[in-house]
Amino acid sequence: MSEAATPSVTAPVARPELLASLDPLLRAWLPRQRWFAGKGRPVTGFSLVAAVELLPPTAKLGLLHLLVRAHQPLTPARGAAPHPGDCYQLLIGVREVLPPRLAPALIGHLEEGPLAGRTVYEALYDPRPAGVLLEALRTRARIGELRFERERRRGDGELRETRETRETRETRETREIRGDLVPRVVTSEQSNSSIVYGDTFILKLLRRIVPGTNPDLELPLVLSREGCIRVPAPVAWMVADLGEQKTYILGVLQPFVQGASDGWELALRQLAKGEDFTGEARELGRATAEVHTALASALPTTTLGRAQMGPLVDGMTERLEAAAQAVPALRPYAPGLRTAFEALAELAAEGHTWTAQRIHGDLHLGQCLRSPSGEWSLIDFEGEPSKSLAERRMAQPPARDIAGMLRSFDYAAHSQHPPVPGWADACRAAFCTGYAEVAGVDPRTDPVLLHAYETDKAVYEVLYEARHRPDWLPVPLAAVRRLAANP
Questions:
Q1: Which CATH architecture fits 261-485?
Q2: Domain extents for the chain?
């Protein structure tokens, strides 16, 4: 596999009978996947967006890369165009007989079509197909519509230097992709899938994909070139070029932080042991401010005044009204919550302005990693998957990220029985203090903006938990009571 690989799609994949034979299997398998976004609605059919053979499916072991659009019934908003269906990235292994070790990956047995009599399965659980992806990234391969790219690094002397920015030999070596790294799938993913290669790299594969520049690649690349060490720098990535200016980002390969602790799990462990977390919260605030500062330096910023804040406040208010309609438990608090948005509109009407920039967009403890040395990193810059790509790439006040983290501390504290609100208060204060030490501005000095964003986030959480995890609904409702009582 190399850059000169022939860009072709071979016969079995190109036949429409293949998708027809996969259809009944995918209808049963796809809705069971954690990353499937259309839960609760039946799949009525599939259409093929793109198909490439990475290993010939007629051989002993085959590997198909499919982009498939899943069609589901929707009730579109009045005046809105019908939704065409979400597009999903599938990596399907093909074998005559599935080994017992791959039983959890089974999709099903094909009874008809060009691959009749063979078994198809989720290929990421199989080391050989997973290794094919790494080899394609290593060699910058082009296969059919798929393009595997590598970051072309400037010389060390050209890298912008900040605190600890000069790369060590170890960091430089991780940018060299070796072909002998053993892959293993990460089983805890939700909206996407990941493969770890030899504790050296992690490949995040986007499952629900849309055309355009994905911030999960865009922003880490920008931060890497800016010299920010708080985000693992992309080493390579997968792209699908489908013509008509439709380019899909499919996956990003980054260094794997060996021995790192997930911020959410670390906070819960500290809580369970009754240990203080304020030191970690303060360092996490500093890390967040470093990322915000680097993004503001590298990408354009804008000023939000009355004209710009009007639609922003209207959106917050509309989300509150919709959530109150869907969740009766929220209705008694809606008037008090609405005052948070009204106060922000009044401030804008008085001539106050705010700076907006590119931000993380979905920041919480689970999007942060602490290395064994104690350094915090921010990951997963994809933004809220429910929002459009254009919305996720908009400039926004940094207060939105800060509010997301403050809510995350509150979530951790209220996940305990009994809740530990004092723990959350101390962590929230420490985070803001750490942020101010780097950014030079304490988020608490703009309480109206921060309160509005925190209220908006709590409303989102109420709706999410009511739909997906009713047992967790008391957690955001506790925040709603507090926010509504303290306008």
A1: Alpha-Beta Complex (3.90)
A2: 11-133, 140-255, 261-485
So what's the pLDDT on residue 9? 45
Q: Using CA atoms, how far apart are residues 100 and 97, in angstroms rounded to an integer?
A: 9
Max intra-chain CA distance, the chain: 71
Query: pLDDT tens digits for 226-236?
Result: 999 999 999 99
Q: Omega of the bond prior to 31 within 30 degrees of 0, cis?
A: no
Whether 93 has a pLDDT exceeding 60, the answer reads yes
114 CB contacts (<8 Å, ≥6 apart)? 11, 12, 15, 17, 18, 21, 57
Q: Which residues contact 337 (CB under 8 A, 6 or more apart)?
A: 320, 455, 458, 459, 480, 483, 484
Residue 259 buriedness (CB in 10 A; 0-12 / 13-18 / 19+): exposed
**Count of CB atoms situated within 10 Å of the CB of 305:** 13
Cα torsion 163, 223, 296, 264 to 10°: value is -90
Laid out side by side, the sheet with 183-186 consists of 142-143, 146-150, 236-241, 247-255, 201-206, 192-197, 183-186
Nearest 5°: CA angle at 445, between 406 and 419? 25
Q: Do domains 140-255 and 261-485 have the same CATH topology?
A: no
**What CATH number labels 140-255?**
3.30.200
3-state secondary structure of 26: helix
Prediction pTM value: 0.89
Q: Which two tokens stand for residue 204?
A: 């995040």
Cα→Cα distances 432→280, 285, 293, 373, 422, Å: 12, 6, 15, 22, 16
The single-letter code of the amino acid at 371 is S
Structure tokens at 198: 């030899």
